[in-house]
Amino acid sequence: MPEEETSLDESECINLLDIVKLSITGRCYFGGDTNKPVTIKIYSSQDANEWDTEPLISFNLPCRTGSWVQKTILLFPDVMYIKASAKNLNTSGTITNLKIKAFVVEP
What we know:
Elements: E1 14-15, E2 21-30, E3 38-45, E4 57-61, E5 68-75, E6 81-88, E7 95-105
Antiparallel strand pairs: 1-6, 2-5, 2-7, 3-4, 3-6
């Protein structure tokens, strides 16, 4: 929905204990009435209970009205756990089929 942000409770917790490399991919469809990006935020935790109040990293999926958009970033994490949230920055436009995926590389 417009100006809505997903909560961390809606995100799966990913354990990064033995991970050397991590890629995060965000993908969504921008409706015909959109003109602003979607912000993806990745939060970290050392115990999977207490989460940082500021994101470890954030990036935007640039708006392409009426189109699919996908963006991948690469991380070399030094944290134990991550979760994701997303915020629709549009005041009246809808975003559908939003997915945030993490791909990990173990040593």
